[in-house]
Amino acid sequence: MKRRQLRQLAAYLWAAPCSLPGLLLAALLLPCGGRIRRQQGALEVALPPWRWLRRLPFAAITLGHVILGLDLATLAALRPHEQVHVRQFQRWGVLMLLAYPAASLWQWLRGRRPYWDNPFEVAARRQSGIPPEPR
Ligand SMILES: [Zn+2]
Questions:
Q1: Contact 31, 25 (CB under 8 A)
Q2: How large is the C-alpha radius of gyration of the chain?
Q3: Quick check: 19 and 92 in contact, CB under 8 A?
Q4: Distance of CA 105 to the CA centre of its chain
Q5: Going edge to edge, which strands form the sheet with 60-63?
Q6: pLDDT at 83
Q7: Given a cut of 70, is residue 131 above it in pLDDT?
Q8: Residue 2 CA to ligand 1 centre (angstroms)
């Protein structure tokens, strides 16, 4: 096994505790009309076309190496942003499940916006080429 493959395997294992809930959700949703595809080392899962899902407060969410999105077109459009989150999970591993909400809580305690000002989201917007939210 080459060094690069070993590094990728380690990244999958390090993020596995976060990917597992996403995989379980995917396994439940696929028989209900969800769709799945592999893109850039992650699994993209399009949710079933249920109308109530459109009311979720997000269009896509990343759990480790699993990205759940409203549909395949949304997943493609948001891929650069969600791939930044995949790399964040690869860096932080299971600690991401604490670090992300803690960062949101910290922003909220400072009177800022928990989602928009979360440094993980700021980095994802910046690195994906999507300009930051205007103030
Ligand atoms: Zn994001």
A1: no
A2: 15
A3: no
A4: 19
A5: 35-39, 42-46, 66-69, 60-63
A6: 97
A7: no
A8: 32
Q: Which residues lie near ion ligand 1 (Cβ < 5 Å)?
A: 121, 124
CA 31 to ligand 1 center in whole angstroms? 27
- Half-sphere exposure for 48 (CA within 13 Å, toward CB): 11
| Closest of 99, 102, 39 to residue 67, by C-alpha | 39
Phi/psi at 63 (nearest 5 deg)? -125, 100
**What spacing in Å lies between the alpha carbon of 28 and ligand 1's midpoint?**
24
Please, what sign has the CA dihedral across residues 50, 56, 59, 63?
Answer: negative
pLDDT tens string 87-118? 999 999 999 999 999 999 999 999 999 999 99
Alpha helices in the chain (DSSP H): 3-29, 72-92, 96-109, 119-128
State how far the Cα of 64 lies from the Cα of 96, in Å rounded to an integer: 9
What digits encode the pLDDT tens for the residues 5-55? 999 999 999 999 999 999 999 999 999 999 999 999 999 999 998 888 888
